[in-house]
Amino acid sequence: xxxxxxxxxxxxxxxxxxxxxxxxxxxxxxxxxxxxxxxxxxxxxxxxxxxxxxxxxxxxxxxxxxxxxxxxxxxxxxxxxxxxxxxxxxxxxxxxxxxxxxxxxxxxxxxxxxxxxxxxxxxxxxxxxxxxxxxxxxxxxxxxxxxxxxxxxxxxxxxxxxxxxxxxxxxxxxxxxxxxxxxxxxxxxxxxxxxxxxxxxxxxxxxxxxxxxxxxxxxxxxxxxx
Amino acid sequence: xxxxxxxxxxxxxxxxxxxxxxxxxxxxxxxxxxxxxxxxxxxxxxxxxxxxxxxxxxxxxxxxxxxxxxxxxxxxxxxxxxxxxxxxxxxxxxxxxxxxxxxxxxxxxxxxxxxxxxxxxxxxxxxxxxxxxxxxxxxxxxxxxxxxxxxxxxxxxxxxxxxxxxxxxxxxxxxxxxxxxxxxxxxxxxxxxxxxxxxxxxxxxxxxxxxxxxxxxxxxxxxxxxxxxxxxxxxxxxxxxxxxxxxxxxxxxxxxxxxxxxxxxxxxxxxxxxxxxxxxxxxxxxxxxxxxxxxxxxxxxxxxxxxxxxxxxxxxxxxxxxxxxx
Lengths: 226, 326
Hints:
A: alpha/beta, 6-stranded mixed beta sheet, 11 strands, B: BirA Bifunctional Protein, domain 2, 3-stranded antiparallel beta sheet, 12 helices
């Protein structure tokens, strides 16, 4: 198996995101007949043989890195990750509708609205993991902000005065609520996407097209999916 | 303590240098045998001369002033300097001009992406031969060049610049929708393209299905047949041009698959008509590119049709290494 991973050709390699999306991704792959039992177990292995595909598991934010370099032929990750890493060229083929979430601007409950804050002080300090998305959002509106890049729990930043607000991804909004934050502005919506390497998209087009078509069908058949 | 060199540049040590030299002599030998003569242009050019070609393509990341206060720039590719050279030096020489080069070009890089600030390009420019015939000559030489460096499994992709715009125009899309969706297509965001067309409210559902299908068509001549059903007169004309190019290469000896790719849209601004990309499965990136640029020479004051290709030397070398045939 490890031998096969490095050679061109062989089974199509799919970059699969660990974390919140993993369950939904594996369910979706199940539905199109990919073997996922091994990947569901508590193995420390990072690579699984899914029958027709090799499944390579990684952090969602690493998916564009592997796919754009051709280390994986296809991959699944959130639109938020793709936007944040828009300088890594990959083909975005299918909106899978999984893991829906929103990128928002949130501030502490009871604070004045960000627009009011900005009118008075001209400038806001915003903590985020999504520097590119935040930068573009505020620039398009002509608003001055100072972005503070943090890696971990961003909710902390406004609580202790590191920033006036945060730009972050929310699914249910529970973490925000529990940390006395509320959504002030919606920046964009995000769902999981099927992506492909530019070269694999051409050279292995039958397999890539077939996979995309089956995933598209599985997504549109699913009851209750957006 | 070592003395660093700028990110994206590198020292080449003797073993690798030998291999790069072998690539150089294989390629220049192939170009020469096909009647393409090597030229060299200065590494430093006047910034405004390069920008005559196309502001975005020639947008050099490295500009500085000389001792007289003139702005100089490092070239981003060799096509633009050669267009300048031909327009100024060969003004009174009868075309066609068949020229080749092996030279470095310079682009800005994102740190830690393994991108090169200074990289090698080998390629040809065929200036003064129009349409299918000139494109076919360039494609045949590209095929031979790839074989000469041992990359017999690489695939040549052939696209046509006007397909997307004409299909949308035929379907009634406005300029804003065309611009937005083209940007998304250049960045390969097919989900975004479909969404933009749907949200514009300018196209019928059938036209949207056609457009999203068209950009995913890639393969043999069967994709040309399928696309015949699409669009109106404008699209049919663009498709005719692509078909003529494809048919003109079938008369030549091309030893590899040419993949027709209706969704290919290249970033470089001066292309018109045919576009070319080269893929090798051993490298996750495009290893070469090119196409027609019939309007480029005119910007330098000499109205001649032109076509060419370039191969990225470091990626060619990487493909050879991955395939174990250095």
